[in-house]
Amino acid sequence: MTSGLVVSARKRALSQRLPLSISTNFPDISSLMNGIASSFSQTTIPLPEPDGGEITCWLLDTRSLWPGQNIWSAPGAAEAMALVSMAEQKTISTKMFIQDARMSLGSALLKRLFISKTLDIPWKDVGLARKGDPKHGKPCAVDVVGRPIEGIDFNVSHQAGLVALIGWNGKKRHRYHPNGGIEGYISPSTNFEPDVMVGVDIVCVNERDDYRTIDAEGLDGWVDIYDFVFSDEERWSMKYDVDYITLLDGTILGRDEIGRHDRCITRNKQIALTTPTGRDVKFNSDLLVDAKLRRFYTYFCYKEAYIKLAGEALLAPWLKQLEFFNVRSPKPGTVARCSTIGQWGEEVDDVEVHMNGQEVSDVKMKIQSYEESFMISTAIQGEINGLRVPSFKKLDLRSDILAYAHKHLCTSPSDYR
């Protein structure tokens, strides 16, 4: 999920079950648990020598997919729904709004695509469970007896129609049996940390009506709503620091040019200043508040991507001890009010991560803007030397997902090589 901390603070408890009209041939992992373990041969293929690993970053835009008000009757949705399990269909069907159902279906497809490709197994053999907590734990790939599989980690986030996946393929410790089965190594109820963990989060800066609270309480009052998430220093920076503002003519004022006007925390105030180069500028303080909101969501995107490394989210007791320094919001992919769909913006990768006052050295984080209002943050932690986080690849539903799923439904990708 996306921006879960914001959503959890304000989300209405709404749900509605829609009738299931499609059945699939996907196995129920829990029903296979009993009796299958004894059928495995004691002989396994030795683990290959490690040959490094790689990170995958995918983006799926569901905003124009499966139009209508009901996911089951939406054109083309039945074909996609038939490619996920009954449990996933049930989860998708309980979404009250079609927008949420689209993102839930897109998320299910991306996870199955990544697992099938990474483990080189048929689409129908993909097994999913959760690490640790069976309801709130981080999703993971499992073998036929429900054990998480080594050498793979992934995370999915969705917001305002976009779905992002980051995945790690360790290229090692994938235990295959001679009969073609793949073996995990521990019970899904056991907590464990893989060599590399990954997390991702999407935020949409202009999705909610934040201005209503800001107009009533000021930006400082609005930021303090989230004092359970951010440290005092982080909240101070959100209120009184600014990276830049974009004027209505498209020119940019940097923080040095804005000067002490960065202390402004109210909207609808006329500001006049002279830059260090002698340029006279007038603008409305709405532009400052917009820039600070973007900075706030940059912090939020970083923080949630990091805490999703282990899948803790709101359960994490150390939220305020996790701090980010050298934060800079990435410039949008398009000029304000002139949004072009699909345009990528600035990429920033020099943020500093601190925990309990100490810098965290085994983590890499990056944030990139998309279109005018979206930002996507990625986090990787663990044995990350030599790992590079690539740019996101935007996938096409028909050619990149559905075609692959149908081709590899009952056979592994290697069978076609």
Could you characterize the architecture of this molecule?
This protein is α+β, with helices and mostly antiparallel strands. It has two domains: 200 residues, 4'-phosphopantetheinyl transferase domain (Ribosomal Protein L22, Chain A, Alpha-Beta Complex); 170 residues, no CATH class. Helix content is 27%, strand content 22%. It is built from ten helices and 19 strands. Strands 4-5-1-19 form a four-stranded mixed β-sheet, with helices on one face. Strands 8-18-17-14 form a four-stranded antiparallel β-sheet, covered by helices on one side. A hairpin with a 5-residue loop joins strand 11 and strand 12. Helix 4 packs antiparallel against helix 5, helix 6 packs across helix 7 and helix 7 runs antiparallel to helix 9. The protein is globular and about 75 Å long. The chain starts with a helix and ends in a 10-residue tail after the last helix. The N terminus is likely disordered.
Task: Give a brief rundown of this model.
With 417 residues, the chain is of the alpha+beta class. It contains 10 helices and 19 strands.
The CATH architecture classification of the largest domain is Alpha-Beta Complex
CATH superfamily of the largest domain: 4'-phosphopantetheinyl transferase domain
How many domain regions?
2
Q: Total helix count? A: 10
**Main sheet: strand order:** 4-5-1-19
Which oligomerization state do the chains in this entry correspond to?
single chain
CATH class bucket of the largest domain: Alpha Beta
- What's the CATH topology label of the largest domain? Ribosomal Protein L22, Chain A
**Quick one: how many beta strands?**
19
| Strand composition percent | 15-25%
Main sheet? 4 strands, mixed
CA radius of gyration: 23 Å
Backbone shape: globular
**Uncertain parts:** 1-25, 27-50
Gap from first CA to last CA: 35 Å
Structural class: alpha+beta
InterPro entries: 4-PPantetheinyl_Trfase_dom_sf, AASDHPPT_N, P-Pant_transferase_sf
GO molecular function, one term: holo-[acyl-carrier-protein] synthase activity
Pfam families: AASDHPPT_N
Keywords: Transferase
